[in-house]
Write a structure and sequence with these properties.
Strand content of chain B: over 45%
CATH architecture of chain B: Beta Barrel
Largest sheet of chain B: 14 strands, antiparallel, barrel
Largest interface: A-B, 51 and 83 residues
Helix content of chain A: 10-25%
Structural class of chain B: mainly beta
Largest sheet of chain A: 11 strands, antiparallel
Radius of gyration of chain B: 23 Å
Oligomer: heterodimer
CATH class of chain B: Mainly Beta
CATH topology of chain B: Porin
Strand content of chain A: 35-45%
Strand order of the largest sheet of chain B: 2-3-4-6-7-8-9-12-13-15-16-19-20-21
Number of domains of chain B: 1
Structural class of chain A: alpha+beta
């Protein structure tokens, strides 16, 4: 009998080799294939006034302008060049060496045809960049170090010569300690930091706002005798901003934000339980959520109609969303990456919060609520602003778009 | 004592089963699936509870061949002389067609096992069996787009599980011509249906959601078998069998299944949805078998079930439940096997066919099942044991124009063991 089972075994092996196609009739199965896209109003968004830290963020920014869609901005930048690294090989740093500040413009906010005029002042108080907030101001020596620094729209680099008084002082700091052991180097650095207060570059006309990547601002020391230029980067820098004649929009119509985080947009998400999810007052489905997107629209038309054609605002291309509370918002903005980022596409910001929502639902905690704060771009010193539509803006009002698949039976 | 040939047989079939199971486990991504129509109702219903009778296309309600355990009619449990058991598995191939497109797929499944213990030889027998009574195993895909968008969405539907029965039974021969039986069974099982939605645009998360239904309940079946010998000749016999399974209500507990899929994790979330009960229909089986000289069998039977009273938990408008009628007829030849018999003369042959109206209609169209059956049994000359191979070719949804039409080819492998490793009878 066992001979008879060899064909059976061979036959079973043959069956296993049969191909398996995708079955037909998927559309005839008695289950719904419908994808539902629910659009819900994002009600109850709030504006939180905020005074953000602005030290050592990435960009040095200076300028003054009238933005017809927002108000009058005036931004000064405060900076302190580092002390040239001590080296016995450099024994020719003299008190007579010419020194100048070099600024390479990386971007401009505002009228790109405007000519800017700046003043350079000496700061006369001790300051720490990381402790400065954007509304702070630093005391300066009334004697202007360099006046009428003219920056035409056509140039991308300008220099500000420093007088011999500064050069002498800088050389003194350089030679204060000449040993190369680490303790001495530390003492040298601390001594310089405590006694050298730095400069303030401030606008003196209405023009545009120039922005410089921090590494593109240097103190240059020219060793003419040896035909060498030493370039020193910034030890610390911070921009301070003041706004006047600000247009106060009704939050129901418009939400005004800028990258210096003078205002933060707030919304919250609450999970009552796994079957009940509330996003700023709107109940969302909790099952089979494929996408939950919070949408904001920029009032591009209003902004565009008020600004001249030569006006440039390239920084407001992203919204950043931080999960935070009022108690820890500073840490979140400074130290952590945003929970979500949304890029602007045709004036529309879509913040995809699906992962968070699904994870939040999956959590065991009930009656849990989270706050979210929205900023423009993130405070890196680069200036940008945006005007979002508010809740009363009809089809352009902020909304939550939830996409989910139905599980009904046909 | 285990006979050497059966040890070899068992070894071969275990190897074959292992190959099948391995193939099945490794082929989830290859859409191993059974009939498209198993997605409706409780799935595809088991056609027969007698592997031997299934090769003849009949349910087996009047087939009293005791070489193979028969659970179609509890009255037949009184007929056994030897402790008899079987185990079966089935491999099916499906060839589907719709709108000029074709696809083939396959399914492998365990198809039940059972044991009959004769307490008093050919007088009183008891039985235990475990059988799937409905099977769901489907995979389907539907592709569309998000409303107001061009993003392509692929909905993948899967359903697995089914109802099983753990049946006990007792059959007793009242007179020389009449046997009766009773078989209570515990119905249980789960059916899990999931819908997984995938998006072409990666900003959308895939979702997987569905339901998992857990069934449990008790059913009762009563049987009657009447036979008369020497009808047309000295060596013939006619059996008339009837069995009736009472309608019963079984509990259903439904949970919602939601697989939260994020970039870094997948978390299944289950939540209870409802506890309720559903009414299972009665099942009336009646048949007749003519047995000539214990070599030739002609049998026919019908199965009637009132599924029109069935109310599924999923109440859509697409599917409606209808009373089921199954008719089968077939013939079998069983040789007398002696130790001197040749290999070919030790084989039993069966042939038959069946028509099943199905128990539901889709868009008011009955989904029928028409099949031709055949079977061979390798009989042992030394015991009553045998190995069966049943083949069934059929059409599901014949004449369908809107839905899929499936042609299927099933192979069922059955090991029948008699007087083999079981307890010595205490009463004779």
């Amino acid at each position: 009998m066992n001979k008879g089972f060899l064909p059976i075994l061979a036959f079973i092996l043959l069956l296993n080799s049969c191909s398996n196609d995708l079955p037909l009739g998927g559309g005839d199965l008695p289950f719904s294939s419908e994808i539902v896209v629910d659009s819900l109003a994002l009600a109850g968004t709030a504006i939180v006034n905020y005074n953000d830290y602005i030290g050592n963020m990435g960009y040095l920014t200076v300028g003054q302008l009238v933005d017809p869609a927002f108000g009058d901005y005036r931004i000064s930048t405060n900076f302190k060049p580092a002390l040239l690294s001590y080296s016995t090989a450099i024994d020719t740093l003299t008190k007579e060496m010419p020194m100048r500040l070099r600024f390479i413009i990386s971007n401009t906010f505002g009228d790109t045809t405007a000519e800017n005029q700046y003043q350079l002042l000496e700061i006369n108080e001790l300051w720490r960049a990381t402790e400065l907030k954007q509304s702070d101001s630093l005391s300066t020596n009334p004697v202007v170090m360099a006046d009428n620094i003219i920056v035409p729209a056509t140039i991308d680099t300008f220099y500000v010569a420093l007088d011999t008084t500064f050069a002498r002082k800088y050389a003194e700091y350089y030679y204060t300690y000449t040993d190369l052991d680490s303790d001495t180097l530390q003492l040298r650095s601390e001594y310089y930091s405590m006694n050298m207060f730095g400069f303030q570059l401030k606008p003196i006309n209405v023009g545009s706002i120039n922005m410089f990547v921090s590494t593109n601002v240097n103190l240059q020391i020219e060793d003419v005798e040896n035909d060498t230029t030493y370039s020193v980067s910034m030890l610390a820098y911070a921009n301070t901003i003041s706004v006047s004649n600000e247009l106060n929009y009704n939050i129901a119509d418009h939400i005004s934000l800028n990258s210096y985080n003078q205002r933060l947009l707030k919304f919250d998400v609450t999970v009552v339980n796994r079957d009940s999810l509330i996003l700023n007052g709107s109940a969302l489905p909790t099952k089979s959520l494929s996408k939950v997107e919070i949408i904001f629209y920029e009032d591009t038309l209003l902004i565009g109609s008020q600004r001249p054609e030569t006006f440039r605002n390239i920084g407001a291309s992203t919204l950043l969303v931080f999960e935070a509370s009022l108690d820890n918002i500073a840490d979140q903005l400074l130290l952590n990456s945003p929970s979500f980022t949304a890029s602007k596409i045709n004036g529309r910001y879509g913040i995809n919060v699906t992962s968070f929502i699904n994870g939040f639902i999956a959590g065991e905690i009930e009656n849990d609520s989270r706050e979210f704060y929205v900023t423009v771009r993130g405070n890196d010193g680069f200036f940008a602003n945006t005007l979002l539509f508010g809740e009363g803006a009809g089809q352009f009002s902020p909304k939550v778009i939830a996409t989910y698949s139905r599980t009904d039976v046909k | 004592m285990i006979h050497y040939k059966y040890f070899k047989t068992l070894t071969v079939l275990i190897i074959a089963t292992s190959i099948q199971l391995n193939a099945q486990n490794s082929a989830f991504s290859e859409n191993k699936t059974a009939s498209f129509y198993s997605s409706f109702g409780l799935g595809s219903l088991k056609q027969s509870f007698s592997p031997f009778a299934e090769g003849m296309g009949v349910a087996g309600v009047a087939v009293d061949i005791t070489r193979s355990a028969n659970f179609s009619n509890p009255a037949l449990l009184s007929e056994y002389s030897f402790t008899t058991g079987y185990g079966a598995f089935e491999q099916s191939l499906y060839m589907a067609s719709k709108d000029g497109a074709t696809a083939s797929y396959s399914d492998f499944k365990f198809d039940g096992l059972g044991l009959v213990f004769p307490i008093i030889k050919r007088k009183l027998g008891v039985a235990l069996s475990f059988n799937p009574i409905s099977t769901m195993n489907y995979f389907g895909e539907q592709v569309g787009t998000i409303p107001g968008d061009t993003t392509i969405v692929s909905n993948n539907y899967t359903g697995v599980g089914g109802l099983n029965e753990f049946k006990t039974g007792i059959g007793y021969q009242l007179t020389n011509h009449v046997s009766i039986g009773y078989a209570p069974s515990f119905l249980f099982g789960s059916i899990k249906k999931m819908k997984t939605t995938l998006f072409q645009d990666l900003s959308y998360r895939a979702t997987s959601t569905g339901t998992n239904d857990f069934y449990s309940g008790i059913s009762h079946e009563f049987g009657l078998n009447v036979y008369k010998t020497s009808i047309f000749s000295e060596y013939d016999r006619i059996n008339v069998g009837v069995s009736f399974r009472l309608p019963t209500s079984i509990d259903v507990s439904r949970t919602g299944e939601n697989l939260l899929i994020n970039v870094s994790y997948e978390q299944p979330v289950s939540s209870p949805l409802l506890d309720t009960s559903i009414d299972m229909p009665f099942s009336l089986k009646a048949g007749i078998t003519y047995n000539y000289s214990n070599n030739w069998l002609l049998s026919s039977d019908v199965v009637i079930e009132n599924w029109s009273a069935f109310k599924s938990l999923d109440r859509g408008s697409l599917v409606s439940y209808k009373d089921r009628l199954r008719i089968g007829a077939g013939v079998a030849y069983i040789p007398e096997v002696r130790s001197s018999s040749s290999y070919l003369s030790s084989i039993s042959y069966r042939l038959g066919g069946s028509f099943d109206s199905g128990y539901f209609s889709v868009n008011n169209t009955r989904i029928t099942r028409l099949s031709a059956n055949a079977g061979i049994s390798f009989l042992s000359a030394f015991t009553a044991s045998s190995v069966d191979l049943n083949v069934e070719f059929g059409i599901l949804g014949m004449g369908q124009t809107e839905l899929v039409q499936e042609e299927f080819l099933s192979f069922k492998f059955v090991i029948n063991l008699s007087e083999f490793m079981f307890f010595r009878r205490q009463l004779q």
